[in-house]
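**Fold tokens**
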Amino acid sequence: MENDYSTIVEKLRLELRRGALPLAVLAQLREEHYGYSLRKQLSSLGLEIDEGTLYPLIRRLASQGLLTSEWRDDDKRRKRFYRLSMLGEQVLETLIVEWRELNSSIDRILKEG
């Protein structure tokens, strides 16, 4: 029974995180980052994200037109820097409102329980 509990909780925890990650990444890309610096910044704020999750997410957000990117040499290495596009800024602002409304609703639901 314990194993079932742990498995269920882990799967649901991952679902919760998965929905929040695009918002966190978009919010951090209000400032320019390359992949590793973005990952470190998110980690320093308490949100661990592995490379296998972060890089596909960045590519998906860029393909949706939410990010701009530019290759540059930095510390003798070529790195791709990302930042929110104008569309990304608009989408982020809308998602922030949605996130806050959702959190508020869930808080009310949890307090009733």
Observations:
- The mean pLDDT is 95.
